[in-house]
Amino acid sequence: MMRRISIPVLLTAATLVLSVPVFAQSPGAFTRLGFGARGVGMGNAVSADSSASPWYNPALAPFASRQSLTASVGNLSLDRDLQFIQFATPLKRAGIALGLTHAVVSGIDGRNNDGLHTEDYKTSEFAGFLAFGLQFGERVSGGIGLQLFRSDLIDGLGAVNTVGIDLGLTFRARKDLRLALVLDDLLARFSWDSSGLFSSGGKSTTDNFPRRVRLGASHVRMDGRLQLVAEYEARFSSAEITRASVQLLGDAPIQSLQTEDLTLRSDLFRAGGQYALTDFMSITAGVDRTVGGEGGAFRPAGGFTLVQSVGALLTNLGYTYAAEPYGLGSGHYISIRLYLEQ
Q: 244 in a domain, yes or no?
């Protein structure tokens, strides 16, 4: 009996299941869930936060105080798992960061033409990045990020790869206020060829990553004990719509198909904060919310960070709980950062 599984089914599983709100149903959706416990815990609104990962903004790379190694895991509902790793090091008036995100969706139900279960499938996706940032003066920093995406959905389809570019700027308007501008996923697109699965019934399909423009702000209060962050994002996604129409050719009706390319825009707003209870413990809270066009879906999160010395190494341990909209469940994120220099 033939196994019954299709490209749309797998694409839906890899995007809808990995995504949180509806607007994330597009290639590379897992990369927009955040990077590590602290970023997720502050609502992913950290593009202007000098302590955040350069994954959010390559212009943050010069603010690394010392060499560090960060590892994170995320366990989400619906059989989703995320892993993150990053190495960052400061340079003279500059900085560099190298990292990798791995996303897995398992337990996808495969069935044959009779509707009987055959086997469980899973998807595996990677996103690696290299970020370089430079301080142009006391107030301005800029950076560029190179990303490599890989998606492996099913045997016979073949893994696909693409490269994306991120550009970022930060500007310190005041001693306690920093602003940011980020352009994400430029040039990134997946090109699928399903002829290996469906022979003559297969076709080639190109899925463009959403182009994103983000504006962020970070404000520090109470002598640095309280940090408030906010971010606005305009997301532009391409879509193809096919319409059927009937025309008369002589006396005979003829059906024709017309294809139209559309650009869809989603507006998102994120906000969060961090408060230092002591020198060794901080709490975080935030919300990742859609402003318009998506029914006001939001994703609240909260967590904490502990600072502890382990021998000669300074260690940060973080945990975040993130709820997901539409009753999709929740996620637990744990991160550990080791500072490799005194």
A: no
Q: Give the DSSP letter string of 159-179.
A: -EEEEEEEEEEEEEEETTEEE
Domain annotation covers residue 191: yes
Q: What is the DSSP string of 274-323?
A: EEESSSSEEEEEEEEEEEESSTT-EEEEEEEEEEEEETTEEEEEEEEEEE
Domain presence at residue 97: yes
CA distances from 213 to 169, 216, 268, 316 (A): 12, 10, 10, 31
pTM score, whole prediction:
0.82
- Please give the structure tokens belonging to residue 272: 């969060």
Closest CA to 210 of 227, 190, 230: 190
Rounded to 10 degrees, the C-alpha dihedral 68/73/74/75 comes to -170
For residues 252 and 248, what is the distance between their CA atoms, to the nearest angstrom?
Answer: 6
Number of structural domains, the chain? 1
Domain containing residue 109: CATH number = 2.40.160.60
Neighbours of 227 (CB within 10 A): 23
> What's the pLDDT tens digit per position in 110-148?
777 778 877 777 788 999 999 999 999 889 999 999 999
Residue 299 resides in a domain: no
> Domain range spanning residue 228?
3-234+264-273
**Tokens encoding 158:** 């073949």
